[in-house]
Amino acid sequence: MTFTVIQWATGGVGRGAIQAVRRHPDLELVGCWVHSADKNGRDAGEIAGEQPIGVAATTSVDELLAMDADCVVYAPLLPDEQVVTALLRSGKNVVTPVGWIFPDPARTAGIDAACRDGNATLHGSGIHPGGITERFPLMVSALSSAVTHVRAEEFSDIRTYDAPDVIRHLMGFGGSPRQALAGPIAGALGKGFKASARMVVHELGLGSAATIHTRQEVAVAAAPIDSPIGTIEPGQVAARRLRWEARIGDRPVVTAAVNWLMGEQDLEPAWTFGPGGQRFEIEITGDPSVLVSFTGLHSESVAAGLSHNPGVVATANHCVNAIPYVCRASPGIKTYLDLPLIAGRAARWRAKETR
Length: 355
Ligand SMILES: NC(=O)c1ccc[n+]([C@@H]2O[C@H](COP(=O)([O-])OP(=O)(O)OC[C@H]3O[C@@H](n4cnc5c(N)ncnc54)[C@H](OP(=O)(O)O)[C@@H]3O)[C@@H](O)[C@H]2O)c1
Prior knowledge:
Rossmann fold, alpha/beta, globular, seven-stranded mixed sheet, 13 strands, single chain, 2 domains
């Protein structure tokens, strides 16, 4: 069975999703929404840096709402709940890396109604949050008993992330420390990390009265640093650490953390990734305690990351690989706790060879 897909936005994640849909044996791209007027009418395959695919991108929301499709991969800069609601109400399932990983049921009445009206399903995915933060820790936790703490932590060189708007406006790089600490990151991105922490607390039964505490730190450039948002001048924010800690009383039970550095040189304080280098880590404290380090999700060099960032590609793949499972699910918001195991797919030549 082939599921038809619309790609919503063609930033790094969107372009990766177009490539992943193309490679997936059960998916076909039929539509593409773009934000920039200069992409209107261009072929979606070409926008993704590949051969033309015969799908013209459009800036028209109405055109895509009227189109028949099984699923939308929704990956704009910021989520617009009205658009997501309209997509669901129009009968399209939605998979997204920008929210709804483990939403509070008290705040989803509009989305729930749209899912019912459109017989559609919404699934929040991603890498961190949306994978490393909750899906994989929950899987690994099955190897342990008496779990007391779960940690998911990212160590990334942000010079390899070619998403200037996200880096400047969401992640808060390149401004003053005061602007960064007051910026949208703890709220906008923190919403996802907090939801993931709540999901782990809930599923492991770590305690019903967990409160989530956010800690932010910044490091500034001590000398000019080249970055995807231009030169970061001395005194401007060049590294960020954020920790979202779920606590029962004073006892931490879940920690989600990011260490985002514009390289390891010329930072004040002199933060580094430590001997482990760039990685994602999951640590389950229990019997036994388990430590998993994910490598391969970061690029070998800054130049390689800017043209093909494995973490961004993995985010897109995680969304796209969920599509068949989400299309088969009953209507409503479905998290990893509701869906069956989501797996990748073999390269197409291999799938054909073994048929
Ligand atoms: N959960 C995770 O693990 C995870 C991982 C990576 C990214 N993300 C999230 O996924 C989203 C996309 O990330 P990305 O790396 O693809 O970013 P990106 O490369 O900067 O792309 C941003 C996209 O948003 C579009 N856009 C710009 N302004 C917009 C506006 N005002 N309204 C709607 N769309 C607008 C851009 O359109 P044009 O190209 O037409 O200008 C572009 O397609 C971000 O919210 C990011 O935080 C989540």
